[in-house]
From TrEMBL:
Intracellular or extracellular location(s): Cell outer membrane
Main subcellular location: membrane
InterPro entries: Beta-barrel_TonB_sf (IPR036942), OMP_b-brl_3 (IPR041700)
Region feature Disordered, mapped onto this chain: 43-70
Cellular-component GO terms for this entry: cell outer membrane
Species in which this protein is naturally found: Qipengyuania pelagi
Keyword Membrane: yes
Protein known as: TonB-dependent receptor
Stored SUPFAM superfamilies: Porins (SSF56935)
Domain of life: Bacteria
UniProt keywords, alphabetically: Cell outer membrane, Membrane, Receptor
């Protein structure tokens, strides 16, 4: 039996790229072999040794998902795992060097953060962002407002269970803030060579049963960028340069407050409230190859967000736990743009989104290490959009339209979890109904039903080895439609056609993970695959100045990848962590004609860090030297993209009194391919991006 288990990695590698969809039965077979081997060993032990009393949860005890595995000693950069979640402990050097939560997330394995704050997980968008377990209304603003030093851990759930999985939810990222204790305050302020000023704080106060954390942030931005492009002019048959110079200035302010009230050992209430406002002014000069085509643009935009999220937890004895959650969030955007040069134009856009939801969850122990969960949720999303007015040079054109409507979602789920010997099994099923009502005709509606089964299986042959298998499937189909029968609905929940007779939309996701230790170093192997199929959509067809719609094949999208990670300590002073990911994607898209096109992309990324730490006898770090880097490369339809980065930092700290600690840090960052933050709290920092002029930032921290 062990011989067959030793061949498991070869079987996995052979199926991964030759026949990727046949991979998962092989992985099921690997777990079956492991179970048979465990059963055989247990039988032999029973025959040669007297019975030994088992140690485990007693009847009536509730065993949480995060408590199913033995406790782990967490080092900096280490990853803890439960059935569906990876917990990444943020290294101390990264907390001191990172300016915001966005920069912290960009270094977490499996996570990518774009310049505009869009977060992807294992190459896929639609990620839910949370702070201390509570949803936030505006991920981009929160990531920029939160200080990197305020973050303790980042929980990543790439394949959510039935309790969390819904719609286009590609995963969950939960930012856990540091518990600084009542009476602690931190103020950070800085400026860089571009004139951008930032100030933020972290205040913790309140009684033991009512801790309150306040996170204010203010940014005044001044920037100038010059871009030189090469443009091909077909009418001239030559390539010329295009130069653009832009200035962006603005002010943004936000306030986040986390309140946790513990009324008793059985009842507690936690609330996360956020409020923010941003005003930007932009001006740009674009010099085209032909001087007459030069133009100047200027405009401003305003953005406001507010959210309130509360969770009430009630324990009924030691058997059952209820959680009642409520969310209310509002996002408003207003902007206009004025251009003059070759033409005069003005663009005005107003967007508003309001989300309200309420849910109730229950976790009940049914004895023998088994647990049964169930829950209900109702969510309403109101979208309002008004656009646009346009004035051209020679002709005057005006259009003002109001779009929007209400999305109403009703969901119910049940989930069963059991621990049998060295296996931990979680089975779940979620049903969801999504109803869309147009704002200009409330009687018009469309209804979609969905089912989401999930399976998470963990096998731990020893304290140092573990296997995990995760499978989820999502299926949506239209069940009713009062709108135009040939109308396509496409939003952040789903994409389908109004005709209720069409086939359903399906999506499934699978992950297999093996974790072990080699020479006291932790090694992790992860294989993942995601597949989405939309059988039909409607595409416009332009014939004789008449727009018609027809049914065509939609995109069938698949992603397959593999990840290898390693972390550990070289000695008492040096520790390291690295992660590598390779993935490839392909899709089949029906275009405006009968011919369909195929596209594909592949991506490779490697990230690692090395940390040296020396502490005094009291455990206070007095020297902390770190090096970290990340290299990403990929191709999208033949277009090669490379983004390497490298950073080095040195931190010094000394404890003066019981309440005062002095610190100083120096760090540098060299990045190619994408912009990054140029500000770092508590550091003098040098940043250079591509061939742009370097920036130098200085910031100071004061802790009370």
């Amino acid at each position: 039996m062990p011989g067959r288990l030793d061949r498991a990695p070869d079987l996995v590698a052979a199926h991964l790229y030759r026949r990727p969809y046949a991979l998962w039965p092989t992985l099921f077979g690997v777990l079956v072999l492991a179970f048979a081997e465990q059963a055989s060993a247990q039988s032999a032990q029973d025959q040669s040794a007297p019975p030994i009393a088992s140690v485990g949860p007693k009847d009536g005890e509730v065993e949480q998902a995060g408590e199913t595995d033995p406790p782990l000693i967490v080092v900096e950069g280490h990853r803890e795992r439960d059935l569906a979640t990876v917990t990444y402990t943020v290294p101390g050097d990264l907390r001191s060097q990172a300016s915001s939560a966005r920069e912290v997330l960009s270094r977490v394995p499996f996570v990518e953060v774009s310049d505009d704050g869009r977060v992807t997980l294992l190459g896929r968008g639609g990620v839910v962002l949370r702070v201390n377990g509570k949803d936030v209304s505006d991920p981009s603003a929160i990531l920029e407002a939160l200080r990197g030093g305020a973050i303790a851990k980042v929980e990543v759930t790439a394949n959510p269970s039935a309790r969390e999985s819904a719609g286009n939810n590609a995963g969950i990222i939960n930012i856990i803030l540091k518990d600084r204790g009542a009476g602690s305050y931190t103020i950070s302020a800085g400026i860089d060579s571009t004139g951008t000023m930032r100030a933020s704080g972290n205040a913790a106060f309140g009684a033991a049963r009512l801790p309150i954390t306040i996170l204010p942030s203010v940014t005044r931005m001044r920037d100038k960028s010059v871009v030189q492009n090469r443009v091909f002019l077909p009418e001239l048959g030559e390539v010329r340069s295009e130069r653009s110079e832009s200035r962006v200035s603005g002010t943004s302010a936000s306030l986040t407050m986390d309140v946790n009230a513990k009324f008793s050992d059985s009842v507690d209430l936690s609330t996360l409230a956020s409020l923010g406002h941003t005003v930007n002014q932009k001006s740009a000069v674009i010099v085209a190859p032909v001087e007459a085509e030069s133009r100047r643009e200027q405009g401003d935009s305003q953005y406001t967000f507010a959210s309130l999220n509360s969770n009430l937890r009630i324990n009924v004895g030691d058997i059952s736990e209820f959680t009642i959650s409520g969310l209310l969030s509002v996002n408003d955007t207003a902007s206009h743009l004025i251009s003059f040069g070759t033409g005069n134009s003005m663009l005005a856009v107003e967007n508003s989104t309001k989300i309200s939801s309420v849910s109730i969850d229950n976790q009940t122990s049914i004895g023998g290490g088994k647990r049964l969960d169930f829950g209900l949720k109702r969510e309403t999303t109101r979208v309002r959009e008004r656009q646009l007015q346009d004035f051209l040079a020679d002709d005057w054109f005006e259009e003002s339209a109001l779009f929007g409507g209400n999305w109403v979602s009703n969901a119910a789920y049940t989930q069963f979890q059991a621990k049998i010997e060295k296996f931990n099994l979680q089975l779940g099923m979620r049903w969801e109904e999504r109803r869309f009502e147009r704002q200009d005709a409330q009687s018009d509606r469309s209804v979609f039903d969905g089912l989401f089964p999930s399976l998470h299986l963990t096998y731990r042959p020893s304290k140092l080895e573990v296997m995990r298998l995760s499978l989820t499937r999502k299926a949506f189909w239209p069940s009713a439609n009062d709108l135009f029968p040939a109308q396509r609905y496409s939003d952040f929940f789903t994409s389908s056609v109004g005709n209720p007779n069409l086939l359903l939309q399906t999506e499934w996701s699978a992950q297999f993970e093996v974790e072990t230790q080699i020479a006291k170093q932790k090694v992790n192997l992860l294989i993942f695959q995601r597949y989405r199929k939309n059988p039909y959509v409607l595409v416009p067809s332009f014939e004789d100045n008449f727009v018609a719609f027809r049914i065509a094949n939609s995109d069938n999208y698949a992603t397959t990848g593999i990840s290898v990670s390693m972390s550990g300590s070289l000695n008492r002073a040096f520790s390291y962590d690295f992660n590598s990911i390779f993935s490839r994607s392909g899709d089949f898209i029906g275009g405006f004609n009968e011919a369909a096109r195929r596209s594909g992309s592949s991506r490779f990324s490697f990230s690692g860090s090395l940390l040296y730490k020396r502490s005094n006898l009291d455990g206070i770090d007095i020297e902390n030297f770190s090096m970290s880097g990340k290299f990403s490369a990929g191709q999208d339809n033949g277009l090669l993209q490379i983004s390497p980065s490298f950073s080095v930092g040195f931190d010094w700290k000394r404890k003066i009194t019981e309440t005062l600690t002095l610190g100083f840090g120096v760090s540098g960052l060299r990045l190619i391919g994408r912009p990054t933050s140029t500000f770092s709290s508590g550091n003098i920092r040098y940043t250079q991006i591509n061939d742009r002029p370097p920036t130098l930032s200085l910031s100071l921290d004061k802790a009370f």
